[in-house]
Amino acid sequence: MPDDLQLNQEGKLRHFLTIEGLDKSLLTEILDMAESFVGMSGQKVKKVPLLRGKTIVNLFFENSTRTRTTFELAAKRLSADVLSMSIATSSTSKGESLLDTIRNLQAMHVDMFVVRHAVSGAAHFIAQHTAPHISVINAGDGQHAHPTQAMLDMFTIRQIKKDFSNLRVAIIGDILHSRVARSQIQALNTLGVAEIRVIAPKTLLPAHVETLGVRVFHNLTEGLKDMDVIAMLRLQKERMSSALLPSESEYFKCFGLTEDKLKIAKPDAIVMHPGPINRGVEIDSKVADGPQSVILKQVSNGIAIRMAIMAMAMQKQGLA
Amino acid sequence: MTLNYLQIPDLLNNLEAALRRSIVERKLTSPLMIGIRTGGVWIAEHMHQRLNIEEALGLLDISFYRDDFSRIGVNPNVKPSQLPPNIEGRDIILIDDVFYTGRTIRAALNEIFDYGRPKQVVLAVLIKRDGKQIPINPDCAGASIILNADQRLKLTGPEPLTIELQTIEVAA
């Protein structure tokens, strides 16, 4: 669902719901701004007063540790007041609808919602129904999008590889259930990488995946050849309603990233994973903790990228 | 229009002399010099060289500390500030190009204090013009001038450094 809802009349960010529809210059602007927030770590007081007096509510209808805490830290480093609510699918347990929850919070003079929800389109729905001065950031909706994760991945790639134009990137694993993969593919295509591959068993690929602008491989050994960036995905067992896989060990044998398999990629290839990792299911511990892994760097970068996105979405607020 | 009576070499000489006096009067010991991006850095580079300061020049980008963020947004070209990790107890010479409302300096001081608590800060500017809005004053200036409300000073550089007087349209 591409939408202009995300941008104001001047083409500036208002909500951040999906990568779709955002152009290369805007994505680059986000990455550049995040860069200056990384530099802030030298300060004794790791805070800037950009969002002083603003109130941000993290609305997590689905469990998350990393994303929620990095959003919270990012908001605090921008000097905003933050309230984190873990509603874990039970906002409706007392019979209150999503819209009523939002309206109630809105009545408390909130300036921004950071939303995670198990239903695709939830953040989008909230953005459509909130007061015009409120910004909405999508922190993951169903199987649709996880745009801040994709941006922190892009940031990590740029930090190490400098330039996107010659890069070959493989996304490996449970593409079917992955909102991360969808957002990554859109961001990589917008930033103009040389090639994107998806490597997965047929049962874990959405229909017509090649129309997203990727090459499809069902064999890890073939797919890893010449890759600069390897983006692993978590096997989302909780979302699997039918028997899509024979067993975890069988999956590991065919699609798990081991040291031997990693040697097939370029020698300076980096290994990414959005977390949480299933050791021994999609990735071997030796690779996850090895020298080519940038998994913890991704986590640190998550704070800077979320600061950049929140600051950009809040600018010029109140004059719109 | 060029300001004939404001010659860059004269302004730099005046500022250097004023700074030398301040260093003695305020008893600055191995001061850290910091320039405010962008114009202030150009001026600071000259002073840094003229005063033979060995320690690298500190660079300050105040974009994240401005008080008009909710009106004009963040400058997309913001660059990380480069200050030494240890500002605690230091003597600092803070340099900007034009002192006008004082708001830039307010933002700069807030940012510096987020890096540590300096012993003292001396503010030096190439030109001080009228129109200050908060109680902050430069300690050293290359020149002090009074302009009309619709006039602005525009510095271009770094090589050559030139200063231009522009007339802007004042909103009714």
UniProtKB/TrEMBL annotation, chain A:
<feature type="binding site">
    <location>
        <position position="146"/>
    </location>
    <ligand>
        <name>carbamoyl phosphate</name>
    </ligand>
</feature>
<feature type="binding site">
    <location>
        <position position="116"/>
    </location>
    <ligand>
        <name>carbamoyl phosphate</name>
    </ligand>
</feature>
<keyword id="KW-0665">Pyrimidine biosynthesis</keyword>
<feature type="binding site">
    <location>
        <position position="276"/>
    </location>
    <ligand>
        <name>carbamoyl phosphate</name>
    </ligand>
</feature>
<dbReference type="InterPro" id="IPR006131">
    <property type="entry name" value="Asp_carbamoyltransf_Asp/Orn-bd"/>
</dbReference>
<feature type="binding site">
    <location>
        <position position="179"/>
    </location>
    <ligand>
        <name>L-aspartate</name>
    </ligand>
</feature>
<keyword id="KW-0808">Transferase</keyword>
<dbReference type="InterPro" id="IPR006130">
    <property type="entry name" value="Asp/Orn_carbamoylTrfase"/>
</dbReference>
<dbReference type="GO" id="GO:0006520">
    <property type="term" value="P:amino acid metabolic process"/>
</dbReference>
<feature type="domain" description="Aspartate/ornithine carbamoyltransferase carbamoyl-P binding">
    <location>
        <begin position="14"/>
        <end position="159"/>
    </location>
</feature>
<dbReference type="GO" id="GO:0006207">
    <property type="term" value="P:'de novo' pyrimidine nucleobase biosynthetic process"/>
</dbReference>
<dbReference type="Pfam" id="PF00185">
    <property type="entry name" value="OTCace"/>
</dbReference>
<feature type="domain" description="Aspartate/ornithine carbamoyltransferase Asp/Orn-binding">
    <location>
        <begin position="166"/>
        <end position="312"/>
    </location>
</feature>
<dbReference type="GO" id="GO:0004070">
    <property type="term" value="F:aspartate carbamoyltransferase activity"/>
</dbReference>
<dbReference type="InterPro" id="IPR036901">
    <property type="entry name" value="Asp/Orn_carbamoylTrfase_sf"/>
</dbReference>
<feature type="binding site">
    <location>
        <position position="234"/>
    </location>
    <ligand>
        <name>L-aspartate</name>
    </ligand>
</feature>
<comment type="function">
    <text>Catalyzes the condensation of carbamoyl phosphate and aspartate to form carbamoyl aspartate and inorganic phosphate, the committed step in the de novo pyrimidine nucleotide biosynthesis pathway.</text>
</comment>
<feature type="binding site">
    <location>
        <position position="275"/>
    </location>
    <ligand>
        <name>carbamoyl phosphate</name>
    </ligand>
</feature>
<dbReference type="GO" id="GO:0044205">
    <property type="term" value="P:'de novo' UMP biosynthetic process"/>
</dbReference>
<dbReference type="GO" id="GO:0005829">
    <property type="term" value="C:cytosol"/>
</dbReference>
<dbReference type="GO" id="GO:0016597">
    <property type="term" value="F:amino acid binding"/>
</dbReference>
<feature type="binding site">
    <location>
        <position position="66"/>
    </location>
    <ligand>
        <name>carbamoyl phosphate</name>
    </ligand>
</feature>
TrEMBL record, chain B:
<protein>
    <submittedName>
        <fullName>Pyrimidine operon regulatory protein / Uracil phosphoribosyltransferase</fullName>
        <ecNumber>2.4.2.9</ecNumber>
    </submittedName>
</protein>
<dbReference type="GO" id="GO:0004845">
    <property type="term" value="F:uracil phosphoribosyltransferase activity"/>
</dbReference>
<dbReference type="InterPro" id="IPR029057">
    <property type="entry name" value="PRTase-like"/>
</dbReference>
<dbReference type="InterPro" id="IPR050137">
    <property type="entry name" value="PyrR_bifunctional"/>
</dbReference>
<dbReference type="Pfam" id="PF00156">
    <property type="entry name" value="Pribosyltran"/>
</dbReference>
<dbReference type="InterPro" id="IPR000836">
    <property type="entry name" value="PRTase_dom"/>
</dbReference>
<keyword id="KW-0808">Transferase</keyword>
<keyword id="KW-0328">Glycosyltransferase</keyword>
<feature type="domain" description="Phosphoribosyltransferase">
    <location>
        <begin position="4"/>
        <end position="137"/>
    </location>
</feature>
